[in-house]
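Figure 3 (text version): structure tokens given as input.
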């Protein structure tokens, strides 16, 4: 399977009695898998101020919210 989630197949064949004639084929199949990208039971294990987000295109992101403090005078 390629990195794009597709399976690419191609083939070519000839007949020994007619070596100048050939047949060929090309096919493409997309597979979809289902399952948890981030197991829900681990959500409770995230440290304080950390999060998991699903962005457009199915991209998964884990991040941390920074703590901002005012400058000391």
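Below: residues designed for each position.
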């Amino acid at each position: 399977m390629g990195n794009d989630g597709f399976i690419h197949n191609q083939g070519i064949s000839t007949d020994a009695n007619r070596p100048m004639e050939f047949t060929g084929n090309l096919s493409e199949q997309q597979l979809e898998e289902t399952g948890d990208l981030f197991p829900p039971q681990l959500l409770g294990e995230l440290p304080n101020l950390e999060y998991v987000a699903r962005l457009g295109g199915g991209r998964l992101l884990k991040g941390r919210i920074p703590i901002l403090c005012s400058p000391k005078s």
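DSSP finds no helices and four strands in the chain.
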